[in-house]
Amino acid sequence: MIYLIRHGQTEYNVARRFQGGLDSPLTALGAAQARAMGLMLRTLVDPAEAILFTSPRGRTIETAQLIAQEAGIETPPIIEEGLAEISLGSWDGKTGREIDDATSGHWSSLDPHSWYFETPDGERYDAFQARLAASLARVAAHPAPARIIVSHGVAGRVLRGLHSGLPKEDMLALPVPQGVIYRLAPGNITEIDCREAII
């Protein structure tokens, strides 16, 4: 079974800055989200049979470490480079307003779900989708009975879309909550909401 998680809330999330290839530490709420998901996973998986796969970004590694502590998973997380968030190039770290000001309003005219792939010097959809598909295949091939992926917002949309066979426009419109676990079973995805357990 594969479980998919988005990292906990970060300082850039609060500031509404697009992180992309950059990083930002978890907030207190983000750490609480990670711990709540770890406690939930303790009830769902045998920690001795679980393995964490994480993007190389600090925010996902921090989330994975907190999850492991609460879930009782002692095996160190595996860093899976292909799970990294989309790089927005020179738009990394900026807010929508800053991008809009720099592009004379062009950003606000772009599709709200697919603009990530229309940055001047960022990653494009085909390459992004291909590396995520390769990472998902590697995770799926791992022999551990419970494989837990800690990734990102846009990356998580594409991973769920790949699992479900969704067309691009549908996968990019998927919600990307924090504090939620997605169980990727053959033929379906179950959402497990941990937000009520956050203290």
Automatic annotation (TrEMBL):
<dbReference type="GO" id="GO:0005737">
    <property type="term" value="C:cytoplasm"/>
</dbReference>
<feature type="binding site">
    <location>
        <position position="59"/>
    </location>
    <ligand>
        <name>substrate</name>
    </ligand>
</feature>
<protein>
    <submittedName>
        <fullName>Phosphoglycerate mutase family protein</fullName>
    </submittedName>
</protein>
<dbReference type="InterPro" id="IPR001345">
    <property type="entry name" value="PG/BPGM_mutase_AS"/>
</dbReference>
<dbReference type="InterPro" id="IPR029033">
    <property type="entry name" value="His_PPase_superfam"/>
</dbReference>
<keyword id="KW-0324">Glycolysis</keyword>
<feature type="active site" description="Proton donor/acceptor">
    <location>
        <position position="85"/>
    </location>
</feature>
<dbReference type="GO" id="GO:0016791">
    <property type="term" value="F:phosphatase activity"/>
</dbReference>
<feature type="active site" description="Tele-phosphohistidine intermediate">
    <location>
        <position position="7"/>
    </location>
</feature>
<dbReference type="Pfam" id="PF00300">
    <property type="entry name" value="His_Phos_1"/>
</dbReference>
<feature type="binding site">
    <location>
        <begin position="6"/>
        <end position="13"/>
    </location>
    <ligand>
        <name>substrate</name>
    </ligand>
</feature>
<keyword id="KW-0413">Isomerase</keyword>
<dbReference type="InterPro" id="IPR050275">
    <property type="entry name" value="PGM_Phosphatase"/>
</dbReference>
<dbReference type="InterPro" id="IPR013078">
    <property type="entry name" value="His_Pase_superF_clade-1"/>
</dbReference>
